[in-house]
Write a structure and sequence with these properties.
Blueprint lengths: L1 H39 L3 E10 L3 H8 L6 E4 L6 H10 L4 E7 L18 H14 L5 E6 L7 H11 L5 E4 L8 H5 L6 E3 L2 E2 L6 H18 L1 E6 L3 H12 L5 E3 L14 H17 L7 H13 L5 H15 L1 H30 L4 H5 L4
Parallel strand pairs: 1-2, 1-8, 1-9, 2-3, 3-4, 4-5, 5-6, 7-8
Helix pairs in contact: 1-10, 1-11, 4-5, 7-8, 9-12
The structure holds zinc ion.
């Protein structure tokens, strides 16, 4: 009897030990997951795009040696455009079609430069040709374009054609009163907007200075988009600047900023969050795991960056994006954001007149 009692007590103690070990293990696992998630929760996103690719192979190969989050925008009729697209694609680098658009000033133009007076068929043929010449492109931005992008009628034709393709449009903002956002309203085309030109002044020091401005803006807004060119000074400045990029700055491809923190879109983020909250209250219990994901994200945000959980975070975002309900929410938020864009455009045009936005008023017609 005594022997049995001792045996029972031993088994019970062993069971407690195993349970204790498992509970402790789960706790450590959760901590290991949540802590790094929270550490990266406040990383600011910076997208860098190198324009005018396809002419200067020697310089451009140096761009391809930079982190694959640096994206390239290829001129469709350039001699090495296709070759560069293939190389960049193998690296997993994002590619944009750098579509030539008419400037206000007289300059030598690329072949197939879009002009506001062109009819829709002519524009459609040029865009189709560009898509064939720049394989793997997921987005498009304007080369030059102060005349074309300031024409609402011209850009409406571009947007209506682009909506047939799964390409986003990055407005290079080569003129203050760009009509890109307004023209995209009501279409499926997603819009991004350039914040900083890295190399209007072609010196290493000034490009580094502009890179720092982009970093500061990303911290302030949550994200920023900078555009540079394959100039030797830009390459040297980037090599130097990227080697010492602060830990709280995450280099991303522009497409990572779609539906997330677009420049100056805090109000849209709030709208998206409000939509999510409304959706959650309408969701029947057990039909989605979104409240759980939101809880984990919330817990993460109260703590502090790490590597493992950035992956988890991306998985959560993928889960969100895979939900059809969430897609509807994004669409609703996009429509709202396009309206906001149009309104902000008006405001920015006013600001530009007063010189408040130097980046826009001084940017080159690249
Ligand atoms: Zn350009």
């Amino acid at each position: 009897m005594q022997y049995l009692l001792i045996k029972c007590l031993r088994s019970f103690t062993l069971l407690l030990g195993i349970l204790h070990f498992r509970v402790a293990g789960i706790c450590w696992l959760l901590l290991a997951c949540i802590l790094p998630l929270s550490l990266n929760a406040h990383a600011a996103r910076l997208a860098i795009v190198i324009d005018d690719v396809g002419y200067r192979v020697h310089n451009e190969k140096k761009i391809l040696q930079m982190p694959s989050a640096i994206s390239i925008a290829i001129l469709p009729n350039s001699p090495y455009g296709r070759e560069m697209a293939q190389k960049a694609h193998k690296q997993g680098r994002e590619i944009l079609i750098h579509l030539p658009m008419a400037p206000l000033s007289k300059q030598p133009l690329e072949k197939n430069t879009l002009h506001p007076a062109m009819n829709k068929e002519e524009i459609a043929a040029i865009i189709y040709d560009a898509i064939q010449k720049v394989p793997y492109a997921t987005g498009m931005n304007n080369h030059m374009g102060s005349a074309m992008t300031s024409s609402l009628n011209g850009m409406e034709k571009v947007m209506s054609i682009l909506s047939q393709y799964h390409l986003y449009f990055l407005d290079s903002v080569t003129i203050g009163n760009t009509q890109v956002a307004k023209a995209s309203a009501g279409t499926a085309v997603q819009i991004l907007r350039r914040n900083i030109f890295l190399d209007n002044v072609q010196t290493e020091a000034e490009t580094l200075n502009q890179l720092n401005r982009a970093i500061a803006l990303a911290r302030k807004q949550g994200s920023a988009i900078a555009i540079g060119h394959p100039y030797p000074t830009t390459i040297r400045a980037l090599q130097q600047g990227l080697a010492t990029l602060p830990d709280d700055i995450e280099l991303v491809a522009p497409s990572r900023l779609l539906n997330h923190t677009q420049p100056g879109k805090q109000s849209n983020q709030q709208t998206e969050q409000q939509c999510r909250n409304t959706q959650k209250s309408k969701t029947e219990p057990g039909t989605t795991s979104e409240p759980k994901m939101d809880y984990l994200k919330m817990v993460g945000e109260t703590l502090v960056p790490g590597v493992i959980i950035n992956t988890l975070k991306q998985s959560f975002e993928k889960l969100r994006n895979s939900s059809p309900k969430t897609e509807k929410l994004h669409s609703a938020a996009q429509i709202k954001s396009k309206k906001d864009n149009a309104e902000r455009d008006k405001a920015k045009t006013k600001q530009n007149k007063t010189g408040a936005h130097k980046a826009v008023s001084t940017c080159s017609d690249s």
